[in-house]
Write a structure and sequence with these properties.
Rossmann fold, about 525 residues, about 35% helix, eight-stranded mixed beta sheet, alpha/beta, 3 domains, globular, seven-stranded mixed beta sheet, Metallo-beta-lactamase, Chain A
Length: about 525
């Protein structure tokens, strides 16, 4: 009986672990590498025929985004997930496939002029549709058979609607080992969904550590703070623009806004408009408004029992077409615009920022993490101007950051979850965190009496003898079959921009010394920020 780590090892994304038992191979998650973790072309580390079945902890792409690739390359077995995860995957995987196809199209447009051969998308919409056909939806707390001698059960992880931690009982040679995969553990006291489930028994635990080195700031009253901001901005005739992740965070905001309206907390404009301008968010909101029996916390259940909807209220509009999106900025009525992407680096949100950032009567409200280098982070860091669609836009709107609204458990809550295992597991494998964080969190677990370590990519562990069989390697050393690291589409875009910059510098000869010095200073600042 062996456990292999094919992703999220010393990394935050790309979750993928393989359990071998009784000749069967069970994959837990099959996620895409994203952002800083993109060290290769997201190719699979094993032939699809190697896998007998897949268990998916939740719908986020870093846990599910390579399922269409797995099916594309020949996997035909069942994919197990909770009912709500299955529904969210129906929109998340289709959206991911659209991005893969768009990235390939962009590369080919550039590559054709440069004489490079065409590239294929990692997978297509047809591949995503095929993967969805193999999903088997189950409810929480039901024990089911994965394969002969192996049983599993989903429990609520409290991270996203339908998210789960997975218990697996695996039998081999007359002996049984219990494994627990945490998936992503949620923050406590979030709206809508329940707190993470505590478990008490396991031989082995595969545990996330996203916030394993820090705690969240004490939560503020979002309804009161948001209502006060709405009053102030609308009294001045401005809009509130909220960059938000389409699945999960947008629905939390709608939950808060429904409460604000129900309690009449906005005095200046009680019938204010809320526009969700993201087709993906609109689809996710419809799923959140469906059958949520067995998935909600007590407060949300009480709202439903009172006859109210969780996410709909007078004045709410879900836009679909680009024409409807454009019309939002033509209409001068003060409104709240919720749009993707959550970090402002793509999507319709950039159009809304172009039309509202320069207006001092408006506000831009951030409700999620903004990564280094993203437009959202630059705005939070106090940028005076930003460039959108080739135009320099002055930042005069009020920039507001609602800290603490996180869907991940922080350090103390992660430790509290681990402390419920009595007796201590034989080993805790710390995954799903930046490399230094995984090591720090594993060290903290050891100080608390656990056996724990942060596995490297491709580590193999013997679960019968409780020992490492293969140590694994650091992610940066992974190579493709061609012997060279495959650049991601994002890196290729960066290379393209660098060539355009070189051409710009060449065209700048003869400009005034003042302009040249200003350009040089701006470039120096960018380089120093990324060093």
């Amino acid at each position: 009986m062996k456990l292999s780590f094919f992703g999220a090892a010393h990394a935050v994304t790309g979750s993928c672990h393989c359990l071998e038992v009784g000749g069967k191979k069970i994959l837990v998650d099959c996620g895409l590498q994203q952002g800083r973790d993109e060290h290769d072309d997201n190719a699979l580390d094993f032939p699809p025929s190697y896998i007998d079945c897949v268990v998916v902890t939740h719908a986020h792409i870093d846990h599910s985004g390579r399922l269409p690739l797995l099916v594309k390359e020949g996997f035909s077995g069942p994919i197990y997930a909770t009912r709500l995860t299955a529904q969210l995957l129906s929109i998340m995987l289709r959206d991911s496939a659209h991005i893969q196809e768009s990235d390939a199209q962009w590369q080919n447009q550039k590559g054709k002029r440069a004489g490079r051969p065409e590239v294929e998308p990692l997978y297509t919409l047809a591949d995503a549709e095929a993967a969805l056909q193999q999903i088997r939806a189950l409810e929480y707390d039901r024990i089911f058979e994965l394969c002969p001698g192996v049983r599993a059960r989903f429990q609520d992880a409290g991270h996203l609607l339908g998210s789960s931690l997975v218990e697996i009982w695996a039998e081999e040679g007359g002996e049984t080992r219990k494994l627990v995969f945490s998936g992503d553990l949620g923050n406590v006291d979030q709206p809508i969904i329940r707190n993470p489930t505590f478990l008490t028994e396991a031989d082995y635990v595969v545990m996330e550590s996203t916030y394993g080195d820090r705690n969240h700031e004490p939560p503020e009253s979002y309804t009161e703070a948001l209502a006060q901001l709405i009053d102030q901005v609308f009294a001045q005739g401005g809009n509130i623009v909220i960059p938000s992740f389409a699945v999960g965070r947008t629905q939390e905001l709608l939950y808060f806004l429904r409460e604000i309206k129900d309690k009449g907390m906005v005095k200046s404009y009680p019938d204010f408009l809320v526009c969700v301008d993201s087709p993906l968010a609109a689809e996710a909101t419809r799923i959140y408004a469906g059958d949520l029996h067995g998935y909600l916390d007590e407060e949300a259940i009480a709202v439903l029992q009172g006859g109210d909807d969780l996410f709909t209220f007078p004045g709410l509009t879900l836009t679909q077409t680009t024409e409807e999106s454009k019309a939002l900025n033509m209409d001068k009525t003060p409104k709240i615009i919720i749009s993707a992407s959550g970090m402002c680096d793509a999507g319709r949100i950039r159009h809304h920022l172009k039309h509202n950032l320069w207006r001092p009567e408006c506000a831009v409200v951030f409700v999620g993490y903004q990564a280094e280098g993203s437009l959202g982070r630059r705005l939070l860091d106090g940028a005076k101007t930003v460039k959108l669609f080739g135009e320099e836009i002055a930042v005069q709107a009020r920039i507001v950051n609602f800290k603490g609204l996180s869907s991940h458990a922080d350090r103390d809550h992660l430790l509290d979850w681990a402390d419920h295992f009595l007796p201590r597991p034989k080993q805790i494998f710390v995954v799903h965190g930046d490399a230094p964080v995984t090591e720090l969190f594993a060290d903290e677990l050891v100080r608390r009496g656990f056996s724990a370590h942060a596995p490297l990519y491709q580590e193999v562990y013997d679960l019968m003898e409780d020992r490492m069989l293969a140590k694994g390697v650091v992610l940066e050393s992974k190579r493709t079959s061609g012997g060279a690291s495959a650049p991601s589409p994002a890196y290729q875009r960066l290379q393209e921009v660098s060539r355009e910059l070189e051409a710009l510098v060449g065209r700048s000869r003869g400009r005034s010394n003042k302009d040249l010095a200003r350009l040089a200073d701006q470039l120096r600042q960018v380089m120093e920020k990324w060093e």
